[in-house]
Amino acid sequence: MRYLGLDVGSKTIGLAVGDADSAVATPLSTLERHGGARDIEAVRTAAAEAGADALVLGLPLTMEGSEGLMARRVRRFGDALAAALELPVHYADERFSTVAAERALLEADVSRARRKQVVDHVAATLILQTFLDAARAAAAARGQP
User: Fold this and answer.
1) Secondary structure (H, E, C), 99-141
2) What DSSP assignment string belongs to 16-46?
3) 68-95 pLDDT, tens digit each
4) 3-state DSSP call for residue 144?
5) Can you tell me the distance from the alpha carbon of 116 to that of 112, in angstroms, rounded to the nearest whole number?
6) Strand intervals (E) in 60-101
7) Prediction pTM value
8) Helix or strand or coil: residue 87?
9) At how many degrees (to 10) do helices 97-107 and 112-141 cross?
């Protein structure tokens, strides 16, 4: 199964792609948000180009693990994507994805301007990788490869 990972923010949507066989997520791009139908169509295009069978959206939980306002917005967007694209939507905890992406980019000595351009799709990659790792661990626990 091939997945399109999304880091949904208020201004941008970071994208990554990965599949269950390799269990490796790769950064794709960052979409500027324009709202509603335009965002859905942009994700539809990206999903089609990536050959995605399902979507994985980062869910911004609070530090206590509960869902706040932004998590509810992401779920509403996920519901709209599921209905419009007719693809399954999964969610993965993204509490530390942007911080981890920023840290990795700083350690790689990426310039501030470049970090701003790529942080969202690097965060999407971390979100999707977390999902793929959890799926692989669950399959191994069930005795499946």
Assistant:
1) HHHHHHHHHCCCCHHHHHHHHHHHHHHHHHHHHHHHHHHHHHH
2) EEEETTTTEEEEEEEEEP--HHHHHHHHHHH
3) 899 999 999 999 999 999 999 999 988 6
4) coil
5) 6
6) 89-93
7) 0.85
8) coil
9) 120
